[in-house]
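Handout, section 4.2: multi-component inputs.
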Amino acid sequence: MAGNSFGEAFRVTTFGESHGPAIGAIVDGVPPRVALSEADIQPFLDRRKPGQSRFTTQRREADQVRILSGVFEGMTTGAPIGLLIENEDPRSKDYGAIKDLFRPGHADYTYWRKYGIRDYRGGGRSSARETAMRVAAGAIARKVVASVSIRAALVQVGTNAIERARWDWEETERNPFWCPDAATVPHWVAFLDEVRRAGSSAGGIVEVVACGVPAGLGEPVFDRLDADLAKALMSIPAVKGVEIGAGFAAAAMPGSDHNDAMRMADGAVTFLSNNAGGVLGGISTGQDIVCRIAIKPTSSLAKPQQTVSVAGEDAEIVTKGRHDPCVAIRAVPVAEAMVALVLADHWLRQRGQCATAVREDRGFNK
Amino acid sequence: MAGNSFGEAFRVTTFGESHGPAIGAIVDGVPPRVALSEADIQPFLDRRKPGQSRFTTQRREADQVRILSGVFEGMTTGAPIGLLIENEDPRSKDYGAIKDLFRPGHADYTYWRKYGIRDYRGGGRSSARETAMRVAAGAIARKVVASVSIRAALVQVGTNAIERARWDWEETERNPFWCPDAATVPHWVAFLDEVRRAGSSAGGIVEVVACGVPAGLGEPVFDRLDADLAKALMSIPAVKGVEIGAGFAAAAMPGSDHNDAMRMADGAVTFLSNNAGGVLGGISTGQDIVCRIAIKPTSSLAKPQQTVSVAGEDAEIVTKGRHDPCVAIRAVPVAEAMVALVLADHWLRQRGQCATAVREDRGFNK
Amino acid sequence: MAGNSFGEAFRVTTFGESHGPAIGAIVDGVPPRVALSEADIQPFLDRRKPGQSRFTTQRREADQVRILSGVFEGMTTGAPIGLLIENEDPRSKDYGAIKDLFRPGHADYTYWRKYGIRDYRGGGRSSARETAMRVAAGAIARKVVASVSIRAALVQVGTNAIERARWDWEETERNPFWCPDAATVPHWVAFLDEVRRAGSSAGGIVEVVACGVPAGLGEPVFDRLDADLAKALMSIPAVKGVEIGAGFAAAAMPGSDHNDAMRMADGAVTFLSNNAGGVLGGISTGQDIVCRIAIKPTSSLAKPQQTVSVAGEDAEIVTKGRHDPCVAIRAVPVAEAMVALVLADHWLRQRGQCATAVREDRGFNK
Amino acid sequence: MAGNSFGEAFRVTTFGESHGPAIGAIVDGVPPRVALSEADIQPFLDRRKPGQSRFTTQRREADQVRILSGVFEGMTTGAPIGLLIENEDPRSKDYGAIKDLFRPGHADYTYWRKYGIRDYRGGGRSSARETAMRVAAGAIARKVVASVSIRAALVQVGTNAIERARWDWEETERNPFWCPDAATVPHWVAFLDEVRRAGSSAGGIVEVVACGVPAGLGEPVFDRLDADLAKALMSIPAVKGVEIGAGFAAAAMPGSDHNDAMRMADGAVTFLSNNAGGVLGGISTGQDIVCRIAIKPTSSLAKPQQTVSVAGEDAEIVTKGRHDPCVAIRAVPVAEAMVALVLADHWLRQRGQCATAVREDRGFNK
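Output:
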């Protein structure tokens, strides 16, 4: 009801503000006897961690996650998993200056209208800080759908798109942008340096691909797999659009080009194209699931902007805090995590929470 | 869990197959003492009804809705509202020919993989027939958010987009496409006639605008208003993309252009632009909510397509059934309805289900 | 949210008022390929049907149920199952006399306080008429947990309890009270005739037993199997108490007597007693699940009672409508149904909705 | 789905095992601008805390709660409230001896059957340790329904019931049993000392009373206020029965005695008795809500019991751990907390989550 939970069978509930003592989550519905430790989660948090290049915020956070429950002797027990990360570098003083001003493009004004109270410390609950817990939960979700590989890449920054013909997944690990096209990297470097000098910011487009999703995942009508993916991805801060498969381009295609023809090959159904993006009628086809999201440019700018104050007066605002010139970069691991959450949830909705345990033979009294 | 319900405080659950005896819905959470009758719902169903022009399926359905509960002496009672529409024109014979073939671009294959059973009668549950109940429930949702006006228009068919400068809401009621630009209509007529002759189909883009939404609607983190809108709209059959405000274009904008500047006017906060599309941080700003969805071309084609059979053999398929050459047309009233469902749900999540009743003074024992 | 749904994985949503045109339900989450037809449901509705003896209301209802969706060629498809029963014998005139009076012991006053509106026709939504849909849904739930047998009996009427030593399940089908003790039946006949003559009413105690429930069903902490059973049974109209196993008597037992000792027998765990009633820590043990519920005496009385009017004035009320002198009798099939709903829900939460379908081999493309 | 959450509008999710590093909870849906600090929660945790008399377990836990989010400058913000208590005194060694044995009357066997894994450390998730988080969340719930007073008392220990005529709420704070009848206390002292000497244990009955609940709270049909109370109370470890108002005694009462007559007094509706226990048709009447629960005797006994091992062999077990001879004592504050959770949830379902904030005037742009 209050919006801080995601999923039904694999259910994540998070808490925590940008400048509070800690952020945390409870992951409920994880099947028993899955090998799990902090070492399975930390690498994904490190991918999202700020301060890794001059293109992301310089805020310093170790983001060390602790598992507080649900794991015994290295295996999940089926009990809820409590996760905790202490905040290390709040720097509230950064925000005192804009204490009474609404930052344009931020949730400051809308939260204040909804709740009638203002936590001015870096946006409080509305800060992207909460996405760390999405990434931690996503790492656990990956263990539930272990046969699925979920990867994302940044395919456009500002007006500069990659050349898809040069796509190389390994390249995404070699540059600070998760860019799959080595030749595009220097252009983004130059572009973002210019953006920062201009006191402005840039947006981008992220593509997520899930390989190995079995056919038959998803629900009819409302809880379609693609509908839940759309919700999960649109819930990421700064996302303004979501598309699957051919996406918006599908509107301009004739049906004869868009339909993915089907053929048998080695006794298996195959598709001759994937304009569907791996989902038909809301249920997975067995092909790769391919989604793209549009991320708006960072709202916090070094250059002055027109705004109003809590007192209802016109004002100018300059945000001095540490911010990402292009939040799309750090959205990459978050987008992967949200897709993992959706797949784990639909997996368990279909397979059942404890299926692995209840089906297994424990030597007597079956 | 099984995907046939939408919403939490304003909750709609639907049932019914394309060729079963009837389709229906239960709308739970409607506040008491709202004036309601079939006459409030039927006009919206008539907008969606097939067979209204040569550009939509010729299937004949009166789509007469009956209210079976929840209304007493013309007013809602707070009890769940049961809705029923009898199916009149199933024509199952149309489908016998493709009984054992999977229609490319349809849910035939994925439903069969998920459920292990095949209801070949026009797609059964996966048919767009179920959207009639979304429209009926949406009409009730509009009564809950009576101060909000929700309208949609078709802004692109195939590659032909409207001229936004010529946008006229009244024009949408004068042509069979819900097109807001009179000058574009003849081009679409010619284009779709050509598409039909070619035995192909076309996609399109629908824009939905909600005016009068108060600031402060929506939840943080996961159940953001825009996230729920994305889910609601992506759940409409054939939708492949959803965007809000500037949408995908936001990725290419500098932050200084994208942020909507704020000023006071007559003691009220105003925004100098609406790139946000009426939502910041997942919560409404008080501006218009503006969404666009991409609809793929109709999957059923008169021209032969490659497919496979239930028995796992290659085959060719030609769908003779009555189909819309461009399903985007009939998606217009459905998109309006889904936005209404989301707004009514968040409205009640915030205001409370029975707020109107419990707050009112009934003369004693307050 | 609005209270008309039950269950998560096996989810039932009902609608309908005592004197509206029809009552209905949507059962969502039923696994595919379960053989189902009206003939599987009707016998259970007939057990609950009024007018079967002089000890139940004389209202005449055929209670013929129609399945409107979710079944194709005699098998469930995994789509939601729509159920409908037309009301035949409303007789609203019976209620005109008490149009403005609150019936003591009824929901008239509380509904009016909650909703601020009054549907005086036999209690509207609060009438026990809605329990017909619980019984219909319960019949479908039984098919989901086909290996479980769920039976109930009336074990006390007013102050007259049965002799447990004479318990005979077959006897419950031979008398109008579902009484398992033939020797007690004549006492109840005499007692209830006296009660009716006195213009009063009587309560009773119902016991429900579920045999064949596998060990391991239920969830920890909040959604315990016994907690959900308590909710399900307390939600039946007129129920004032629920107990499981030893129930309230457990409070007076020493732990050494109450604990059910465990021994191995033929390689299986067995218990030497069942004070737990088949549930430990909220999860099933594999023993019979045994619950008892206390039903208050019928609120509608032929003798005058003190009440107040909608206008806030003292008044006297005599209810002339057709009522059961002892609603506990007709609560028997309803109690069975509610236990079936809980077991089917926990079964699917554990096993997964589509487990049967997704696990099965369909010849290719596994 | 996985059972570790309670409530819809006021939603509590807990985690933590008896011998893990910590236990915690997330309370979501708390309205904004409610004054809250650890000092509002700690006193209720102290009431539940073990080791306060020789009649409760000697395990030493400070149970110091930390609020990690959702509160800013002493007021709730509407963001989820993260709660954490570090475990101080696990003493896992106590449990090594029974590592491979199922304790009769415990969840050891059922959890092992459900999850296929065994956390033998004091029952892990099934330990009553988790109830500390129910009490902490209940303290927050009390702030949401500030006008309601929720109190509980122990009214029976073993076979010794109090004398209701001597009921004195203040006395409950003066003895270690929360006993409202001073004259009964010495009998319980003698009885429990004898029970402990015998290596046995005792059960009891707890009564909870909520005063000041407004009329009109609760939902129809399934989510009745009494149904949710029954679930909440039955979910407390060791509870075997729940009743409301006259409870099981209602079965033996004639309707003319059981119905609570209604009269006007000072322009308000009043009832001449409260056999309903404050709920009619699942909705509150405005009278006190009165519930009773039966708690079974502690399962862990000093005297030997028959059991089986994980390996499927007969065995004898003697539990040496620190246990309450009568868990009913510590169930008193837990029962109060569960009633508070139910009332806060139904309060917000009706009034709306943010009602307080959205209704208030913030000077402009209403």
